[in-house]
Design brief:
mainly alpha, 488 residues
Length: 488
C-alpha cells in the first residue's frame, strides 16, 4: 500500500503539482509586478506594526509566528539534507528560486485569507475554504479542501512531527537500539503538552508561538553561525558551488540537473508551503487595517523559512563535507547531525536534538490551528472541535510510538492535492489582489497608513468583515486627506 501511495504522489508532484506551482508563481509575479522583491522594506515595516485594538487581538507578528511555527519544522533540517544528498548542491539554488516565486503565491493567498475572513471583535478565522466559497461560490470544493487540510495537517503531519521528536531523542539518549520506554515517555509528555496548548485556543497558540519560534530560530541560526565563522573563508566557494552545480556541465551531461531541479523544487515547496493553502489560515487571524499587510508579512515568512533557515542547513552540510552530495546513503536529519558533529564535536548532536524538539513541537501546534480553523468552517465548533482536539492528541501519541512510513506516504499524496485545489481558487482571484495592492500603494504614496473598507470596492461580494466595526479598520478622515493629496 505504501509503495502505491508513493507512486501516486510522485506522479502528482512531478507531472501536475510542481509545474502548476512554478508556472502560477511566475504568473502571479507578473500580476503583482514583482512585489515579492520590490516591497521587501515594506514587509519589515508592517511586521513590526503594533495592533491598534483591544488586548485580545492577534497582531501581524503573532500571525507570522503561527505560520512560521508550521513552516519551520524538521523539513528545514531533514528535507534540505535529503535534497543535497540526492540532488547535489545545485538543489539548494532551486530552493532559492522556488522561494522567490513562492513569495508572490504566498502574498496572493494570504491577502485573500485576510479579505474573506470571518468573525468579529478580533476573533477572526479564515483560509482557502472561506475564499473558495465566498468569492467563487464552490461550496463542494471548499468542503473538500477543509476536510483534507484538517486530516493532513492536524492528524497526519502531527504524527510525523511527533515521530521526529522521538527519533531525535532516541539518537541522543536511547542507545543503539533505542528504547520503547523512552518512546512512550516522550510520547505521553508530548501529548499532554499539546493538549494544554490546543485546548487554550488561538490566543494560547499565538503566545506559545511568539515565544518559542524566535528562540527556536535563534538557537539553530546561532549554532549555524558558529560553523560558518569557523570556516568562513570557504563560504564564498560553497555558494559558488551551489550556483555552478545548478547549471554545471556535469549535471547536464549526467542528467543530474533534472534531479537537482526536482529535489530543490519539491523540498523547497514542502518547506515553505507557498501555494499549499495552509498559511492563509494563520494570516486570517490577524487584526490589521488592510488585507495586503498580511500578504506582505507572510511573503517574508517564505524568505525566513527558505532563504535563511534552509540555507543555514545547506552551509552546515556542505562546509562539513560536500562529498555527501549525489546519492550518499546518509540522508535526512542524520546527515545534519553528522555534519555538526564533524565540525563541533559530539555535544552538537544533543544541541540539534533540542532544536529539533522545538522545531517539531511548534509545527504540531501550528498544524493543529490549520485544522481547527477548517473544523470551525465545516461544523462551527462545539462537539466536533472537541473531537478533533482529542484526535490530534491521540495522533501525536500514536506518531511517537509507531512506524510512520504509511503516514508519510499519505502526507505526500494529500499535499499536492491541497495545492492544486488552492491554485484553482487563487489564480482567478489574483486580479482582486492586484486591485487591493494598488489601493494599498495609493495610500502609501500619499503618506498615509493604508486602511481598507469594503465600500472601497463595492463590487466585491460576501465580504463579512472590513465594515469599520473594529477600531483598527476605522478610516477617520483618510479619504479626505487622500483626495486633497490627489488635488495637489
Amino acid at each position: 500500500m505504501t509503495e502505491l501511495l508513493d507512486t501516486l504522489s510522485g506522479s502528482l508532484w512531478t507531472y501536475l503539482a510542481i509545474p502548476m506551482l512554478v508556472l502560477s508563481g511566475l504568473y502571479l509575479t507578473l500580476v503583482c509586478r514583482g512585489m515579492q522583491i520590490r516591497m521587501i522594506p515594506e514587509m519589515f515595516r508592517v511586521l513590526g506594526e503594533r495592533t491598534k485594538g483591544e488586548e485580545g487581538s492577534i497582531s501581524s507578528f503573532k500571525a507570522f509566528t503561527i505560520s512560521a511555527a508550521s513552516r519551520v519544522g524538521t523539513g528545514n533540517i531533514a528535507g534540505v539534507a535529503t535534497a543535497i544528498a540526492l540532488g547535489g548542491p545545485g538543489a539548494v539554488f532551486w530552493m532559492w528560486v522556488v522561494a522567490l516565486l513562492g513569495g508572490a503565491t504566498s502574498f496572493v493567498e494570504s491577502t485573500l485569507g485576510q479579505l474573506y475572513k470571518s468573525g468579529r471583535l478580533y476573533r477572526y478565522h479564515g483560509g482557502p475554504a472561506y475564499y473558495i466559497q465566498q468569492a467563487l461560490g464552490w461550496r463542494w470544493l471548499a468542503v473538500s479542501f477543509a476536510l483534507m487540510i484538517s486530516v493532513t495537517y492536524g492528524l497526519v503531519f502531527n504524527s510525523v512531527q511527533a515521530n521526529s521528536i522521538v527519533d531525535a531523542m532516541q539518537g541522543s539518549f536511547g542507545g543503539p537500539q533505542g528504547s520503547v520506554a523512552l518512546s512512550w515517555t516522550v510520547g505521553i509528555a508530548l501529548a499532554l503538552l499539546t493538549a494544554v496548548v490546543i485546548f487554550g485556543g488561538v490566543q494560547s497558540i499565538s503566545k506559545v508561538s511568539v515565544t518559542v519560534v524566535p528562540v527556536m530560530a535563534l538557537l539553530y541560526l546561532g549554532i549555524g553561525a558558529v560553523v560558518v565563522a569557523l570556516d568562513f573563508e570557504r563560504v564564498p566557494g560553497v555558494i559558488a558551488d551551489i550556483v555552478a552545480h545548478a547549471f554545471g556541465w556535469r549535471e547536464i551531461a549526467g542528467g543530474g540537473m533534472g534531479i537537482a531541479i526536482m529535489m530543490g523544487v519539491r523540498r523547497g515547496l514542502f518547506s515553505n508551503e507557498a501555494g499549499m493553502g495552509s498559511v492563509p489560515n494563520a494570516s486570517a487571524t490577524a487584526a490589521v487595517s488592510h488585507p495586503v499587510k498580511q500578504g506582505l508579512v507572510q511573503t517574508l515568512g517564505v524568505y525566513f523559512d527558505t532563504l535563511v533557515i534552509c540555507t543555514m542547513t545547506a552551509l552546515i552540510i556542505l562546509l562539513a563535507g560536500p562529498e555527501h552530495a549525489y546519492g550518499d546513503a546518509t540522508t535526512g536529519a542524520s546527515l545534519t547531525q553528522w555534519a555538526l558533529a564533524q565540525q563541533l564535536g559530539g555535544w552538537a548532536v544533543h544541541y540539534l536534538t533540542f532544536a529539533i524538539l522545538l522545531f517539531a513541537f511548534t509545527s504540531v501546534i501550528g498544524n493543529y490551528y490549520y485544522g481547527e480553523s477548517n473544523i470551525q468552517y465545516m461544523f462551527g465548533g462545539g462537539i466536533w472541535l472537541l473531537l478533533f482536539r482529542l484526535l490530534v492528541v491521540a495522533f501525536v501519541l500514536l506518531g511517537s510510538v509507531a512506524q510512520v512510513s504509511m503516514v508519510w506516504a499519505m502526507a505526500d499524496l494529500f499535499m499536492p492535492l491541497l495545492a492544486l485545489i488552492n491554485l484553482v481558487a487563487i489564480l482567478p482571484l489574483s486580479g482582486t489582489v492586484a486591485r487591493l495592492l494598488g489601493h494599498y500603494m495609493e495610500q502609501r504614496r500619499a503618506g498615509l497608513e493604508p486602511i481598507f473598507h469594503r465600500d472601497d470596492m463595492p463590487d466585491l461580494k460576501n465580504i463579512e468583515c472590513w465594515d469599520g466595526s473594529d477600531p483598527v479598520t476605522h478610516r477617520d478622515d483618510r479619504e479626505a486627506l487622500l483626495a486633497q493629496e490627489k488635488a495637489s
